[in-house]
Amino acid sequence: MELQNAKVGFIGFGNMAQAMAQGWVKTGALKPGQVYASARNVEKLKRNTEPLGIHACASTAEAAEQADVLVVAVKPYQISEVLAPLKETLQNKIVVSVAVNYPFESLKHDLLPGTAHLSTLPNTPVSIGEGITIVEQTHSLDADQYALVETLLSALGLVQPVETAQMSTAGTLSGCGPAFASMFIEALADGAVKHGLPRDAAYQLASQMIAGTGKLQRETGAHPGAMKDAVTSPGGTTIKGVTALEKHGFRGAVIEAFDAIEGE
Questions:
Q1: Measuring CA to CA, which of 69, 91, 152, 217 is 20 to 30 A from 62?
Q2: How many CB atoms lie within 10 A of CB 181?
Q3: Which element (helix H / strand E) includes 40?
Q4: Rounded CA gap, 17 and 11, in Å?
Q5: What contacts 6, CB < 8 A, 6 or more positions away?
């Protein structure tokens, strides 16, 4: 199936579903008329879909019937209940979950045998086509189905397949990381404002610096330590800042944040 002919539906239209829909419409990967959404609160759904021009469905059944690819975007504890009445409809669809800690085997129990399904973990920057979608390597899609889903998700940013056992850790990095990065942007800006730089300029510079550094690493494949060394002259200003960060446990704090989430 060609992307221009594909129809995508959402069951649940919270923050992540809205981010994905925004990304597809913003990047032009999908036209608004190709996207369908359903949610329990239909009035709220209409308010959230109207700015994008996508279809607000009166029921989950309508979204499921219309879609070629159905994105399940409800809380994990709601999935079984929501999918139960849709099992037969979904047998001829591609089902994509974006629920945390709901891998292939969990979703398999909510669907009829042979239903094509895949578990993923997108992050919020997908809304501007600069996100990450973690994709579980275990799935039941055939080659053509996987190619369609990969094309859809690639329009939202990086698609990173990982083994089932690593879904949680990868999801922490890409899903919780934006909060950590935002805190770093804020802290950098606060430091600059303390020394007289206007806040708007401080945010612009901090955000672009992080975006550019990340892109440089991805395109060159350089080790982050080597990138640090490249701007750290002997006796210079940068090494003084690096030393202060190390003194206050910068790296350790980041690793401990992972430990807190992953349960170590």
A1: 152
A2: 16
A3: none
A4: 9
A5: 30, 34, 68, 69, 148, 152
Q: Which DSSP string do the residues of 197-242 spell out, in sequence order?
A: --HHHHHHHHHHHHHHHHHHHHHH---HHHHHHHT--TTSHHHHHH
pLDDT tens digits along 118-166: 999 999 999 999 999 999 999 999 999 999 999 999 999 999 999 999 9
Residue 125 near residue 146 (C-beta atoms within 8 A)? no
* CB contact at 8 A, 189 and 206: yes
Instruction: Catalogue all structural domains in the chain, each as residue range(s) with its CATH number.
Output: 3-162 (3.40.50.720), 171-262 (1.10.3730.10)
The H or E element spanning position 143 is: helix 143-154
For the segment 53-59, the average pLDDT, to the nearest whole number, is 96
| Residues facing residue 117 across a β-bridge | 95
pLDDT at 53: 95
Mean per-residue pLDDT over the chain, rounded? 95
The widest CA-to-CA distance across the chain, in whole angstroms, is 68
Q: E strand or H helix at 117, and its extent?
A: strand 116-122
Sheet holding 8-11, edge to edge: 55-56, 35-38, 8-11, 69-72, 94-97, 116-122, 131-136, 157-162
Q: Is the pLDDT of residue 264 over 80?
A: no
Number of H helices, E strands in the chain: 13, 8
Give the position of tokens 């997908």: 126
